Amino acid sequence: MKIHKWGLFLSFILLCAALLPATAHASVKYSTYTKDSRGNLIWLQPAYFPLGVIGQNLSAPDPNNSAAMTSSPMKNPKDIFVDAKNEVYIADTGNNRIVHMTEKGRLLRYITLPESPFNKPEGVFVTKDGSIYIADTGNKRVLKLDNNGKVLQEYKRPESRYIPDTFVFDPGKVMVDEREFMYIAVHGSYEGLVMLDPKGKFQGFFGANGTAISPLDALKRMLYTKKMYANEVAKRPEPINSVATDKNGYIFTVTGGMATTNQLKKLNVKGDNLLRSSSKSFGEIAPWDVPVGPTATGPQLIDVTVDQSGNMIVVDQQNKYISHYDASGNLLYFWGGASAVGSSQVGLLKSPVALDVNARNELFVLDDQENIVQVFRLSEFGQKVDQANQLTLSGRYEASEQPWNDVLRLNEQFAPAYLGLAKSAFKKEKYEEAKDLFKEAGDQQGYSDSFWQIRMQWLQSNFSWIASVMLFGGILYMLVDKFTAKREFRARWHNRPRTQNRFISNLKLALYVLKHPIDGFSAIHYENKGSYLSASIILLGVYASLLISQFATSFAFNPKTFVDIYSTFTQFFIAWIAWVVANYLVSSIYRGEGRFKHIFIGSAYALVPYIAIGVPLAFVSNVMTMSESSIYHFVGNAMTVWIGLLIFWKIQNVHNYSFGETVMNIILTLCTMLVIGVLIFIIIGLTSDLGSLLYQMYQEVTLR
Asked: Which parts pass through the membrane (predicted)?
């Protein structure tokens, strides 16, 4: 009997252990996340909690028995809309009908058209007066119904000379603005939304996406003739998947396909995208769900809605994540994830295709695989974030302090909270506090603005003694220079004996190269000056300068707060050694006179400007703001150009090349570096496979 009990106990433990990974994975996926300024994932308190499921127990009168009801579940629904009365409309595509129910899921009616049946309707929109617009996809039309379901008007393919003959009118989603203008998302239409006036007259295409041109496409345009380029496959913009509007009349669109930026747009009546960045990526994925492989694509945004606070909510059909952005397009948080295969799990999604919110900001998510609607409400964390963010966006920074502090008590890593508190501190002229908070939030512009105010206050307080020191210091310098001009000690200093130490002389040669590059590199070649030791010390100095630049540069110009010294070391020295080896190999074949030693030393000496300029620039950046970024970048670019010219002159003089030969040598060297990289990659791969094979053979021999 005891053995039997212990056996049951052990069986239970093993069962729990077997189920633990799946359970843990599901709970992780259901969590809410955000990202900091560097894209690192941050776990948050749940922003939404599931309220329940509606739409799974629909029933209709039995045609054979008027007193009985028969089950009539949804089939492959494609769109959901919550009207001003919080009633829910669903485009039940597979059943060729519109389902009308209460927000609690009680069926009110099925909307069908016996005289002109729907054929795979995929979109539904209801105006404030109760008019129902339906994208009847299979019949290639949009219908306007009154609140009783009677057809008021039918809109088919509009006629206009501005519409291409190849245009196919397959409406997928429809939206109507306050003027009763329709915006129709058409399947496969790269021209944008079809805009019709209330009478169905074509008013133009609206909100079209731009064509993504790769660097290879740009090169083809430059090199190909018109006839050759005409034979290429045409590059088309991605079609718009869905469209929505908010109470302020803005129009929102989402795009999937191969689009990697601007998948979410907030458009005004002119069609201008109002979101802050013109090339921002939308749609969030947890790292463990990022697709990989040659056919992998980014987030596939299928639908968008706007809540009562103006926050944009988008759903990614492929990865099953729901992302929330504020009215300016800044990420608040994202959550979701796919439910386990073969089971249904409340709060997780199988195939989300559409979503909408009601007047209480409850979120309705339509699943076309489960044929249900999941309903979610904001958690305490979500409510606090929404309240605080609305106060911040409306400019009421001080009033937002308490809600943001409440948010931080729930999760101290929430970057938008630090940003809101930073704006409040800036408004109250607490610039030191604001600077630190902006840095914590990852806002470079806010950090720079705060520092500008701190610098201005310091200059105003200390200008008098700074000006006095500069004035009297200048006068003192001129007097000392004048009265000591003919003194003997100055003559002795200028005529002092120079050091004969070869090592110091080699280091001085590196400085001489900065002022006289042609003479300096010629001395390396013809006079055999320079040494491996001095070149190695300079390389270590450049590596130290790289680290100092990353550590010491102001946050306004370098947002990185973590520096990987090992990665920096590896990348720098591998690239430099590959350059030296490749240049030596090319020069040996391409009539170069320089030896390996000359190339090694000259390539090291050419990097001295990074020590001379890069380190001081990093420290000086800490007294600069982003308003002086043009100066900062000019100096940095000048340093890069200087290094490039030194490398050019090094190759020209060490190998005794002409200008054209030098250019060809550089091109061949870069190509050789690429080939070396590919070969190393192949060798590492083959070595790894060989090692694995030998290990397996060893196991086979030893085990047998």
From this structure: 463-480, 532-553, 565-586, 598-619, 631-651, 663-687
**Does 575 have pLDDT greater than 60?**
yes
Contact 283, 314 (CB under 8 A): yes
Q: If you search the block for the tokens 């003694």, which residue do you land on?
A: 465
**How open is the CA angle 31-32-38, to the nearest 5 degrees?**
125
Which ranges of 553-658 would DSSP assign to H, the alpha helix?
565-589, 596-605, 608-609, 615-620, 629-654
Query: How does the average pLDDT of the chain come out, rounded?
Result: 85
User: How confident is the model over 460-476, as pLDDT tens digits?
Assistant: 888 888 888 889 988 98
* Average pLDDT of the segment spanning 57-86: 79
- Label residues 370-396 b or e (16+ Cβ within 10 Å = b): bbbbbbbebbebbbbbbbbbbbbbeee
Residue pair 348/29 in contact by the 8 Å Cβ criterion: yes
| Tens-digit pLDDT profile for residues 253-287 | 999 888 888 899 999 988 899 986 667 889 888 87
Ranges of H-type helices in 380-501 = 380-393, 401-410, 415-427, 431-441, 444-483, 488-494
Residues in the chain: 704
Q: What are 467's two structure tokens?
A: 């000006």
Write out the residue limits of the CATH 1.25.40.10 domain(s) in the chain: 379-496
**Are 654 and 525 within 8 A, CB to CB?**
yes
Q: Rounded distance, CA 421 to CA 419, Å?
A: 5
* CA-atom Rg of the chain in angstroms: 34
- Check: CB of residue 549 under 8 Å from CB of residue 618: yes
3-class secondary-structure state, position 459: helix
Q: Give the pairing of strands 141-145 and 182-186.
A: unpaired
Q: Rounded to whole angstroms, how far apart are CA atoms 235 and 211?
A: 7
At 163, the amino acid letter reads: I
Nearest Cα residue to 317 out of 353, 281, 291, 284: 353
Q: What is residue 33's three-state secondary structure?
A: strand
pLDDT at res. 427: 92
DSSP class of 614: I
- CA neighbor of 439 nearest in space, from 281, 276, 560, 564: 560
* DSSP state, residue 137: G
421-462 pLDDT, tens digit per residue, is: 999 999 999 999 999 999 988 889 999 999 999 999 998 888
Q: How far apart are CA 685 and CA 309, in angstroms?
A: 53
Q: Which residues contact 660 (CB under 8 A, 6 or more apart)?
A: none
Q: What is the rounded CA–CA span in Å between residue 139 and residue 156?
A: 9
* Contact call for residues 362 and 376 (beta carbons, < 8 A): yes
Listed in order, the ranges of the chain carrying CATH 2.120.10.30 are 42-209+232-287+297-378
Name the percent of the chain lying above pLDDT 70: 87
Between helices 629-654 and 659-703, what is the axis angle to 10°? 90
Residue 590 DSSP SS3: coil
8 Å CB contact between 35 and 41: yes
Half-sphere exposure in the Cβ direction for 40 (13 Å, CA) = 12
The dotted CATH code for 379-496 is: 1.25.40.10
Give the tens place of pLDDT for each residue, 681-694: 888 777 776 777 77
Tell me the C-alpha to C-alpha distance, in Å, between residue 132 and each of 58, 115, 150: 21, 17, 9
